[in-house]
Amino acid sequence: MGTSTASIGAIDQEKFLALLLANLRYQDPMQPVNNHEFLNQLTQFANLQAMQSLNASFDQMLRLQQLTQGASLLGKTVTFLTNGMLSMGRVSGIAVENGKILLDLGGRRIGLDAVRSLSA
After folding, report:
1. C-beta of residue 95 within 8 angstroms of C-beta of residue 52
2. H/E element holding 72?
3. What is the helix (H) or strand (E) element at residue 9, kind and residue range?
4. Is the Cβ–Cβ distance between 68 and 75 less than 8 Å?
5. Strands (E), the chain
6. Other beta carbons within 10 Å of 103
7. What is the pLDDT of residues 64-106, one digit of tens each?
8. Residues ≥6 apart with Cβ < 8 Å to 100
9. pTM for the whole structure
10. pLDDT 10s digits, 16-30
């Protein structure tokens, strides 16, 4: 997943607006766009904006959930997988780097997704 949903949505929104403006600019004055068609296009545009807003909200909710999961591991001993090997360490802190939750295990940082098990 190299391209984010937000950037795909932004491109679609820009293209939609460009097409809408081109249709209005180059329409035949003798046969203008039907009001019904124009309202349908505006409704599609509003739906696109609402979907983009919803996707952004889901993204924020996912990040908050991951941060909460990381915080719940503070003081716990975790077993984690790195370079094909299982290791253990006590979680002493959490950090966010490039949108990814990292657990601090006494100077060593691992991704939340590397955790395989935990103990008190």
Report:
1. no
2. helix 35-72
3. helix 5-25
4. no
5. 77-82, 85-90, 93-97, 100-105, 108-111, 115-119
6. 25
7. 888 888 888 999 999 999 888 999 999 999 988 888 889 999 8
8. 111, 112
9. 0.54
10. 778 777 877 777 777
